[in-house]
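Long-time lurker, first post. I've been practising inverse folding by hand and with some scripts of my own, and I keep getting stuck on stretches where the structure tokens seem ambiguous. Below is the full token string for one chain I'm working on. Before anyone asks, I'm not after the true native sequence, just a reasonable design that respects the backbone. If someone could post their per-position residues I'd love to compare against what I wrote down in my notebook.
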């Protein structure tokens, strides 16, 4: 089984990449694709290459994806990740270039065995939606499982109704939730319930160099990780849920509908029996302490 991470690196995406370096065995990490989201695409690609180098995983191919959403205008989250996307943390410049664009990724996709990929998406779903439109059969055949950090059951963080990854490209989210159903949606309700305490963040540094980097990123003043109720490491929750299924929470099916009307609820994910959309899989209450322990282990 190979892992495909689609990221908009970002502070918590960076922590997810660092955790992936410990949690995914050698040869099990297929590639990473970069999408505009938290910051612009150039910065996302650059950050992704820098973080993979810091994690000692420069063999993992990186593809350059979409620089803007399918339909809406671009929004970013520099308010929570700093202008660079990594707050004030400065890593050495990359020593390599990306492998290619989404077409190159599609060609690579055609070569892997059917049912061999787990897709973990931690940004807006633009790349995945474009590939679902370009090659729907290929995507369905190759991708056995999709886990997305996004959405919220009645909870928003950009607007009262919408979570950032859903809000940044709602049309793409609707395409992907339909095309790759049932997608496991690690939403805001789950990631906030799995927050770390400030002490747990500090102790990550004991794990070694990847843990120390994760601590520096999460303690960066730029990171708006909802400190009042803990430090929320959204994307690392999704990553570890994908790599170690069933250890933090179970998944329950329920339909999801993405609000595509341009009103105050644009980008909201509506969940429940009356939702007019595909089935998705929703986490039960997460075991917070288990997540903290799994993250520390993955960063060691
Ligand atoms: C999500 O939005 C981004 O800012 C984070 O990286 C995470 O993927 C949380 O809403
Ligand atoms: Ca992200």
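-- Answer (accepted) --
I ran through it position by position. Result:
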């Amino acid at each position: 089984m190979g892992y495909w991470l689609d990221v908009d690196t970002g502070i918590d995406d960076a922590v997810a990449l660092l955790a992936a370096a410990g949690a995914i065995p050698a040869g099990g990490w297929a590639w990473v694709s970069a999408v505009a989201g938290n910051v612009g695409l150039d910065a996302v690609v650059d950050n992704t290459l820098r973080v993979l180098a810091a994690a000692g995983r420069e063999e993992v191919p990186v593809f350059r994806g979409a620089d803007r959403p399918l339909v809406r205008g671009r929004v970013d989250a520099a308010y929570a990740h700093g202008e660079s996307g990594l707050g004030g943390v400065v890593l050495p410049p990359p020593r390599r270039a990306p492998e290619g664009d989404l077409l190159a990724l599609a060609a690579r996709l055609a070569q892997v065995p059917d049912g061999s990929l787990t897709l973990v998406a931690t940004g807006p779903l633009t790349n995945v939606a474009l590939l679902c439109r370009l090659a729907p059969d290929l995507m369905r055949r190759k991708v056995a499982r999709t886990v997305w950090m996004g959405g919220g059951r009645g909870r928003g963080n950009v607007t009262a109704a919408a979570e950032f990854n859903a809000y940044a490209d709602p049309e793409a989210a609707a395409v992907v939730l339909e095309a790759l159903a049932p997608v496991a949606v690690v939403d805001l309700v789950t990631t906030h319930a799995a927050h770390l305490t400030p002490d747990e963040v500090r102790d990550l540094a004991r794990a070694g160099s990847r843990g120390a980097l994760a601590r520096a990123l999460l303690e960066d003043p730029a990171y708006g990780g909802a400190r009042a109720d803990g430090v929320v490491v959204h994307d690392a929750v999704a990553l570890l849920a994908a790599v170690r299924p069933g250890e933090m929470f179970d998944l329950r099916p329920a339909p999801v509908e993405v609000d595509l009307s341009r009103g105050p609820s644009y980008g909201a994910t509506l969940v429940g029996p009356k939702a007019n959309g595909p089935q998705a899989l929703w986490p039960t209450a997460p075991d917070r302490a288990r997540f903290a322990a799994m993250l520390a282990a993955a960063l060691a």
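A couple of notes from the structure itself: The pocket of beta-D-ribofuranose (ligand 1) is lined by residues 10, 12-13, 38, 77, 80, 122-123, 149, 157, 163-165, 234-235 (CB under 6 Å). The chain has one domain: 2-299. Happy to go over any region you disagree with.
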